[in-house]
Amino acid sequence: MTGFGPEHLPYGVFRRAGEAPRVGVRFGEGVLDLAALALDGLLDEDPALFAQPSLNAFMAQGPATWSRVREALRALTAGPDAEPAAVPLDEAELLLPIAVGDYADFYSSIYHAENVGRMFRPDGEALMPNWRHLPVGYQGRAGTVVVSGTPIRRPRGQRRDDQDAPPVFGPSTRLDIELELGFVVGTPSALGEPIPIDRALDHLFGVVLLNDWSARDIQAWEYRPLGPFLAKSFATSIAAWVTPMEAVLARRVPAPAPDPEPLPYLREEPWALDLDLEVELSGTTISRTSARHLYWSAAQQLAHLTVNGASVRTGDLFGSGTISGPERDQCGSLLELAWNGSDPIVLADGTQRGFLEDGDEVVLRGAGGDALTLGEVRGRIEPAA
Amino acid sequence: MTGFGPEHLPYGVFRRAGEAPRVGVRFGEGVLDLAALALDGLLDEDPALFAQPSLNAFMAQGPATWSRVREALRALTAGPDAEPAAVPLDEAELLLPIAVGDYADFYSSIYHAENVGRMFRPDGEALMPNWRHLPVGYQGRAGTVVVSGTPIRRPRGQRRDDQDAPPVFGPSTRLDIELELGFVVGTPSALGEPIPIDRALDHLFGVVLLNDWSARDIQAWEYRPLGPFLAKSFATSIAAWVTPMEAVLARRVPAPAPDPEPLPYLREEPWALDLDLEVELSGTTISRTSARHLYWSAAQQLAHLTVNGASVRTGDLFGSGTISGPERDQCGSLLELAWNGSDPIVLADGTQRGFLEDGDEVVLRGAGGDALTLGEVRGRIEPAA
What we know:
The structure is a homodimer. By secondary structure, chain A is of the alpha+beta class. In chain A, 17% of the residues lie in helices and 27% in strands.
């Protein structure tokens, strides 16, 4: 079943030629049409819940509905003889699975944060003073979240290569990727009411791989004092398949204790996700890493995101931040893999890369053992307009 | 007509007790029910366009429809004998007028940016090197944009008052306001296609007063290196009434030339909006200023926001940034008015304020002469949870 068997059953939105979009579940090399299953009485839900252009109506039903549907789907797909009717993958156009409410992005891999600190502040501490006390993050642009396969046009913008000259305008010359996990909120919260950390996972519907495309030259010039803006807002790619939290949490493992112990609203039994991740660039695997390298968990991120009273909505998305491990070839960005262009990586065809070139194709992949293959995130760089 | 006559006609969403929300237009002390007017044949549009919980369906129709409706409404309301049927204001509950897509916030008043620079970087240049080259901005949280009148609960969060001690957690002790204009996008743009500056205003539907509530202590601790996050995300208040661009642009005036001349994608004939603005704090007017003090225009902001290929959607909102003038009592934040708490302002009752106290009520007001009164933005501070 190549990681898409009855233990996984990720949700997406698909369209057959000439038909309206509807919610589906990937099973093997096919897509189960949930609206059709509900019409046939194989799911106990209103078919209208699945005759939708996004998962949001389904996600808004809450955990009891998610469990009921998942159990019914497992019953349909489990067993050696199970052969539920499915739409072949090659007949299904995969659409953006969620209508994104707010998109926030964190910075929760300590190896990534240390690498960036060493690179850009060589004379200071690698980590900012706040880093070990809170999951640093920022709001990103929700309207430019796109589904895997969407071409990525190289952004144009201001950069200042020469610090003694005025800025120049043109296509980014330092276009990068960021390998991340994205967490999708299913159950909303009320304004003014923080989500306690021990309830945070109850609000999450699922997980996607996420590529936070980044223009490093634009970012370096624009980011003081209000953070990254146009360096990130041109596109963020997510997988077409949202892996349910239940499947993801089967890969939950203990993690090292944080140092120092965080403030009470961020305290929990340390855990991480044992998911293997990799980055392919134009046919060459350039990084193999793991979600275990994240210092802050999704529960800590959501507790922090709402501790000031900010609410979350069904369809909100938050990214883990670039996932890097302790070794150079375990990093989740070209910035680190090629050390800011100073140590280019070599592809299988012998060409070198500091940053992305036009025509490059990036694929993010992930797996939790044989039973769980995360939906891939694919994107090819098109020349600037 | 107290600024709500036939020259203004701002749009909002209202609800009468027991009825569904619908789109209305403020006229004098009443609200014109556009769904009812369309049903009666007094507007040439489908009534369903106005039987809506937000302006988005109407805004998505584009400028030709906006003009046609505005002309029809002016015909109904102009002339000394015009007395169109209206819902009395005190029978109309005013709701958030737009379903906000993405919310971005700029930093476009040079006086404000200089004040902040002088306060926090006393030994450096008041302005960051990028400030005069691009409209600095960041993405804010769309899901916590609330309508005028919504109570604002004091946020809790991490702060580090003592730089030699660990951070502490608790209610913000430096809660502030930011007086801004907010611009509402009506006409969307496509991903990968920047909006040229000379077309930018065509995409805008209207303007609201906006209060970007800010927790300065949370911000100071969290903002490096990714910018403000929880310091802002707990709430942003906007007016219930969206003033159409046509009414706002009647107050367009020439502005000083920027120095240096910006890059070509930001070049235009310099202009500003001649709108008088003021801040009232618990009954005392503490600031009188003007939108003329903005260095970057809404057209420059939108051209910048999309120059990297980022798209905009109907309902997107962007803020001007705090509007401050050259004098102390022309500033749009308490941070500046009370100079970071060092020079408290004195209210009419003799009490002093460095930052906001629980129970304080803030009202933002604006006007463009006698004909145009912007919808106010009101908010009272509730104690932390």
